[in-house]
Design a protein that fits this description.
- This protein folds into 2 domains: 24-174, no CATH class; 178-286, Roll (Nuclear Transport Factor 2, Chain: A).
- The model is unreliable at 1-21 (pLDDT under 50).
- A hairpin with a 2-residue loop joins β1 and β2 (36-48).
- It contains 8 helices and 14 strands.
- The longest helix is centred in the first third of the chain and has 19 residues, at 2-20.
- The chain has 287 residues and is an alpha+beta fold.
- Strands 1, 2, 3, 4, 5, 6, 7, 8 and 9 form a 9-stranded mixed sheet that branches.
Length: 287
């Protein structure tokens, strides 16, 4: 079963890659903040349908950035991946998200993609309400999004920022390339990776943890281990993670979008945990 699912997922990844490998659209504008002004050069647009029900609803996502990025970073139920590279200074720009079924009146949720002064600081999230949502023009067709947008943060906002840009980008439909439920999810390579990762955490085996995580995720865990010490680290992990004997049956679903996956786990009390993974160097790793 494991080899069969691995073969299926490998084929899906191979076929999904080109679909998400969109050329960068064009942005012509600028973003100003307390860190200075940057030129917005590229535009990307995806429509996430929320087929899995893991987000609040469907989203039209528009990214205006200072460089080209991997479109897979915008895939799936969360924007965590694109925010993570912004926190490391590997991207600067604006991410705008809105309900595609209510373009004329839905509020626009934005994220200022700028590296924060301190690693512990959060990115700036903001909401634009009103009929225009900051758009002077917005046209959405079956395969393209284009428009003009401008916004200036309110006085006293920290950090203060503003942006204006015209943009045009191909609209990529973001639907899952695979959804595995129940036993198929539990036997899938992403689920096996999560289980191995959690077992290694519970054992305090950082070498094995490193093998099952991306460098960025491991760096955070290793920093916590050093900061609080081995004993406290293990105490915290064991307080958060369930018994490894019952964890496999808590895995209810695995959702894959291109090179990214989300493993959905539901505890007996109904609480839900979602682990994000990325397929890199031929294997799945917790991200």
């Amino acid at each position: 079963m494991h080899r069969f699912l691995a073969a299926i997922l490998t084929a899906l990844l191979a076929s999904a890659g080109p679909a998400m490998a969109a050329d960068a659209g064009k942005a012509d504008g600028s973003l100003s903040s307390e860190q200075g002004a940057i030129e917005l050069k590229t535009a990307y647009a995806t429509q996430y349908f929320n087929d899995e029900g893991l987000a609040d609803g469907p989203e039209l996502r528009i990214l205006l950035a200072d460089r080209k990025v991997d479109l897979d970073l915008l895939a799936g139920p969360t924007a965590d991946a694109i925010e993570r590279i912004a926190r490391k200074g590997e991207l600067r720009g604006i991410l705008l998200r809105l309900d595609p079924t209510q373009l004329a009146k839905a509020p626009v949720r934005g994220t200022l993609l700028m590296q924060p002064p301190s690693p512990s600081d959060s990115l700036m999230h903001f909401t634009i309400t009103g009929d225009s949502g900051g758009f002077d023009a917005l046209q959405v067709s079956k395969d393209r999004v284009q428009g003009k947008v401008q916004f200036q943060s309110a006085p006293g906002t920290s950090p203060a920022f503003g942006y204006r840009s015209a943009f045009s980008a191909r609209l990529v439909q973001d639907r899952p390339t695979a959804r595995l439920i129940g036993a198929r999810a539990q036997e899938s390579p992403p689920a096996k990776t999560v289980l191995a990762f959690e077992r290694a955490l519970l054992d305090g085996d950082l070498a094995t943890v490193s093998a099952h995580t991306t460098p960025a995720r491991f760096a955070g865990l290793d920093a916590d281990f050093v900061r609080v010490g081995a004993a406290v680290f293990l105490e915290q992990v064991r307080a958060q993670l369930p018994d490894p004997a019952i964890r496999p049956r808590q895995i209810r679903e695995v959702v894959i979008h291109g090179s990214r996956a989300w493993v959905v786990m539901i505890k007996e009390d109904g609480s839900r945990t979602i682990a994000a993974l990325v397929h890199t160097d031929g294997v799945w790793k917790v991200d």
